Amino acid sequence: MAARLLPFGDDRARPHQPSPIEITVDGVVAAGVAGQSIAGVLLASGRLDWRRTSSAGAPRGLFCGIGVCFDCIVTVNGDRDVRACMRRAADGDEVLSQHDTLPEVTA
Amino acid sequence: MTSVLVIGAGPAGLAAATAARARGAAVILLDAADALGGQYWRHLPAERPAADERILHHGWSRFTALRDGLEADAGCEIITGAQVWAIEAGADAAPTVHALIGPSDGGRRRGRSFTPDAVVFATGAHDRTLPFPGWELPGVFTAGAAQAFAKGERVAVGQRVVVAGAGPFLLPVAASLAQTGAKVLGVYEASRTSALLRGWLPKPWQLLASAKKGGELAGYVGSHVRNRIPYRLGRAVIAAHGNERVEAVTIAALDADWAPIAGTERRIAADAVCVSHGFTPRLELPIAAGCRITGDGFVEVDTAQRSNVPGVYAAGEITGIGGADAALAEGGVAGHCAAGGDARDPELRGTVRARDNAGGFAARIEAAHGIRPGWPAWLGDDTIVCRCEEVPYGRLRDIADHTCSSGLRSLKLSTRAGLGICQGRVCGRTVEQLLGTAGGAEAVSSDRRPIAAPVRIGELAATLSPQEPTEHVQGKDTNV
């Protein structure tokens, strides 16, 4: 059970047939459709979390969906801290999940 | 020619830009997203057009008329993908607005600064979500996230979904989820019948004057009946359970102050939960410009939607949570007046009347669905309050007690709550409330963010180069 993309044939809004795109997430291919956000591609591909928090190492993914909470940040084509909900996925995007650990404290 | 900069392209901003153009001003319209419409008219992207997209929206033809009018108008420069990151208050003049333009959070955005004659802030609001045990688990979303992904991507955030919180927004969220193929297990509204009657029953003629709202409500009721979605009052999700992701939630009955009633807990299996307890206005830009904020946390405006700062206007949810009709009317007034018009001008009469009639809506929502003081009873000591810094409730209280912190600034430094990457956007109001610093004498609120959005050092350095244009430029800019 997970998030899912409504199949366009079932959509009462009658969308045009979407163009498929592919991105890689930590090297694994994820399929989406043109115009989706990176978070949308991730969710609809069955991933609910794609980040670990710094202090507890807890899983995080999408929360606010509109660019406010920064829970969904990823690295996109080398740019760190990109809000996956705010960035449209482009065919061929290379997405890396971020697990930023806290710096070691030395005496 | 008067130049007007409008920040935010939702209902208020679109109406403001249109009204300012009607009065002959040169207009620049900025939005951080890459499409117009804001959250209310969040829609499928250009890459995925739909023949009947109007069925997903209220007032869709109003939106397309505003959008098409502005897009066809050479006197309005529309800049999407524009993240305003700083506002420089002017002395007796409108502020300078600094933006980075390009794909969201990209490393190679272009800096642009604007020095218009007038600024209209139409930055809207985002969900206020109260914490509960497990709300940091993947699979817990704000109701706004569910709505954004249903409308903007046709993605249902889960398959068995619980919608909970407070306010009329829960209804369209549930309807959109059902329309996108999710099974909505129930809508749980924290307010009880008595509060709803207190908010919605008085002066019913005012509601009748806003006939569109009635039609909208009837639509949601129809959707709920069709999709067999239970709507329960006086209940809340008080915990989410799961290992690494949401697997179930606990729902409990609440008393009139929203404290859970012992013995009423019920566990429901679900793969997603969408929560909203109202909205928080996005105030950082108005605060940076020096706008006075009311005691209940909104931009103070006069009948012309003018703030206390010369040349600075505000419209929409940042002046009170009143819905799209109020935002449209306020935007119309703000744009007209920012362009040099007067709120008493005859051509503005209908807009002013619509604005004044819509005024009661915000007060009704607050009376019916406003957050009640008993909710912290559902927090445990280990419930995360600040999601970014992972500060649990017990530690927050202990540190505050032990450091004798007083006022929000010292509390943030001692507890770290609100210091993470979201800069208190999610937990700020909650921390203020839990630690009793709301409206404190220090006059510091978590909405004071001098840097309004994260900026890369390289981008900051590039914006200091002298060749960046600061003049008012005409023409289209859609390089995102």
Secondary structure elements and their pairing?
The complex is a heterodimer of chains A (107) and B (480).
Chain A: E1 4-5, E2 20-25, E3 28-33, H1 38-44, E4 49-52, E5 59-61, E6 73-76, E7 79-83, E8 94-96
Parallel strand pairs in A: 2-8
Antiparallel strand pairs in A: 2-3, 4-5, 6-7, 6-8
Chain B: E1 3-7, H1 11-22, E2 26-30, H2 60-71, E3 76-79, E4 82-88, E5 96-101, E6 110-114, E7 118-121, E8 125-127, E9 140-142, H3 143-153, E10 155-156, E11 160-165, H4 170-179, E12 183-189, H5 193-200, H6 204-209, H7 211-226, E13 231-233, E14 235-241, E15 248-253, E16 266-269, E17 272-276, E18 279-281, H8 284-289, E19 312-314, H9 324-338, H10 349-369, E20 384-386, E21 391-392, H11 393-402, H12 408-415, H13 428-434, H14 457-463
Parallel strand pairs in B: 1-2, 1-7, 2-3, 7-19, 9-17, 11-12, 11-17, 12-13
Antiparallel strand pairs in B: 4-5, 5-6, 8-18, 14-15, 15-16, 20-21
How is this structure best summarized?
Chain A has 107 residues and is mostly beta strands. Chain A has one helix at residues 38-44; strands at 4-5, 20-25, 28-33, 49-52, 59-61, 73-76, 79-83, 94-96. Chain B contains 14 helices and 21 strands.
